[in-house]
Amino acid sequence: MTFTTLAITLAFVCIPLVLSKALNLQLGKDVIIATIRAIVQLLAIGYVLQLIFDQQNVVFSFLMVAIMIAVATLNARKKGAQINGITWKLALSLCVIEAIVMSVLVGFHIVPATAQYIIPLSGMAIGNSMVMSILFLNRFTAEIEAHEQEVELILSLGGTPKQAIHRQLITSIKASMLPTIESQKTIGLVQLPGMMSGQIIAGADPVQAVMFQLLVQFMLLTTASVSSVLLGFLSYRTLFNQKLQIIPEKFTGQ
Amino acid sequence: MTAAITFHNISVTMQDTQIINTISGQFPKGQITTLVGPSGAGKTTILKLCNALLSPTDGTIFYNDQELKTYNPLTLRRCVGMALQDAPMIKGSVYDNLNLPRQLQGETLSKDEAIQALQQVGLDAKNIHKKAHDLSGGQRQKLSIARTLINPTDVLLLDEITSALDPHSVTEIEQLIVTMKQRGVTIIWITHNLEQARRIGDYMWLMHRGQLIESGSIHLLETSQNERVQQFMRGELL
């Protein structure tokens, strides 16, 4: 694809702009910002990746993954502001996920240990994990606020903080994992995944593209479950003090 | 008079707001103390302090002459039980709710014990498999008390448990609480119903804006020379 043909695809950006204007959606500015950011960020990353692939230096790959984890952490932490140490908890969860994913993929020689494989697959794992973390933190905060009385009831009956928050924790973990599981059920029937479509368009063998997509799907199941479970169990303790009491500031209902 | 719980210069400050202001007083053992006062007086905070759901910012609380903070909170909360105003229920059956205190300790309540617990609060045993959320307000409050009493309760804290009930249910709950008292349980009961406070209470605490205005025999509600008690009785203390 040339830059000229890419420029023609900007027609797809004009349609939402026209609709926003016609229906007074007031999204025109956001659409323009999103478009410019997408162009700049993706082109920049394209050149950076080209540089890294040319160098074939493991330090560059490591740096790239570290930046991905840092950006994902900074993006997700706003949703869990009331959880003490949310930044390092998120960073730890993302590092664990990256370690699990790479141990399996590189350890079992499923993919070669080169930047060309490590960086895109890490990006998918970390990106998905970030979304799962945001979903989890949103739901967990809402569950605690909605069921504060239940939490207090269990504490008042002599339950531990873990017992008091258990139902809210499990509900939030399940809720954040469900979209990944549900989308996997309809994959290939309703939507063709972007990565697979991209490979096919670029001329790859469709069966090979499907096999890679399956690898990604299985990997995403792990990232979804590990990120919510790990973040959940790292976070719930910070809502209680050492006297096994709710910390009122953490429960906005109080 | 032996005190089950004693407050000594207790203050509570939360998010820069003083909720309780230097309170000292006692809750007599085996008696019913009614806790009265206008909304926002700090009554619920007093119950949470007794149950160790909150800790005082200043002062000392004694439970059976031992500093409350020296108890393991889990052990203490099983002895100092609390029934909350809205009688919150966990999802599940009446039995699931009754079993909750045992489940929290890794044990199981037998069906016979559950039936006995229901009968103790005047609930029909056939309700045992009903969904807890399907019970009427009065039944839920009774179940909430029965659930609290599954633990070996020595002190029972009641937070406006009859405020949303019909007169018949109120009478039943009052009778139940008197029975608990006769079994030696110390009761601390927040109520907005002055008639109820006088009818059921042996002792009273009158609170206003985080301060203890008066405490002692329930008759003080009528005989106290304290002007603010008289204002409260006339409905003028807001």
UniProtKB/TrEMBL annotation, chain A:
Keywords: Membrane, Transmembrane, Transmembrane helix. InterPro entries: UPF0014_fam. It comes from the Bacteria. Its main location: membrane. It is found in: Membrane. GO terms for cellular component: plasma membrane. The chain crosses the membrane at residues 6-24, 31-52, 58-76, 88-111, 117-137, 186-204, 210-234. It holds the Pfam family UPF0014. The keyword Transmembrane helix applies. It is a multi-pass membrane protein. Belongs to the UPF0014 family. This is Membrane protein.
Automatic annotation (TrEMBL), chain B:
PROSITE patterns: ABC_TRANSPORTER_1, ABC_TRANSPORTER_2. GO terms for biological process: phosphate ion transmembrane transport. Keywords: ATP-binding, Nucleotide-binding, Transport. It comes from the Bacteria. Pfam families: ABC_tran. GO terms for molecular function: ATP binding; ATP hydrolysis activity; phosphate transmembrane transporter activity. Residues 5-234 form the ABC transporter domain. One of its GO terms (cellular component) is membrane. This is Amino acid ABC transporter ATP-binding protein. It comes from Candidatus Kurthia intestinigallinarum.
